[in-house]
Amino acid sequence: GAGVSQSPSNKVTEKGKDVELRCDPISGHTALYWYRQRLGQGLEFLIYFQGNSAPDKSGLPSDRFSAERTGESVSTLTIQRTQQEDSAVYLCAGLQRRANYGYTFGSGTRLTVV
Amino acid sequence: QKEVEQDPGPLSVPEGAIVSLNCTYSNSAFQYFMWYRQYSRKGPELLMYTYSSGNKEDGRFTAQVDKSSKYISLFIRDSQPSDSATYLCAGGYNKLIFGAGTRLAVHP
Questions:
Q1: Disulfide: which of A1, A38, B57, B90 matches B98 by Cβ 3.0-4.6 Å?
Q2: Which strands, in side-by-side order, build the sheet including B19-25?
Q3: Which residues in chain B (47-66) have CB-CB distances under 8 A to chain A?
Q4: Band of residue A98 on the pLDDT scale cut at 50, 70, 90
Q5: Which pLDDT value is given to residue A14?
């Protein structure tokens, strides 16, 4: 596709439920990043995947958060037992090999925990 | 202390003004620096990329990095109402760390 695609675009869930967010990168994106953006705030790094290397999970806020990516394809971010403080926009970005380090972002998934 | 500090604004300027947006960072390992623009309810889009210290110009936009003082700047000349957005600075080496973003409003 022409850009990084994220689904769903909006998700409302009840506190305590699990949610799964999906990111479809552009073909050739060797690295994939997840960020969280709370209302009125900057982007908070969560996790990144680089090829077949072990992912850098240093930004995940708790063990309720996990993410997977197989090769250079789709990635899913899972939040278990959601809490109200998890409400935010979750952004995915891809980086092409030999690119000028510019990440291409998707439009995000707006998660609201009620 | 956050790794990248950015004044959240808001910053309001008249059309045609020169806008200066600034950030500081603390991690000496940062090698590349970027500015992103984000419109409401959209993902960030890359404006400028700079590797190490120096200036880079693209149309009305100029990015500056001074690694000795750990200072990142973005200048917008002849600002337009369409420039109204949130501007995010970022630095990093294997992953980008973002500032909080500065909200800019350019009024006609």
A1: B90
A2: B4-6, B19-25, B71-76, B61-66, B54-58
A3: 49, 51
A4: low
A5: 97
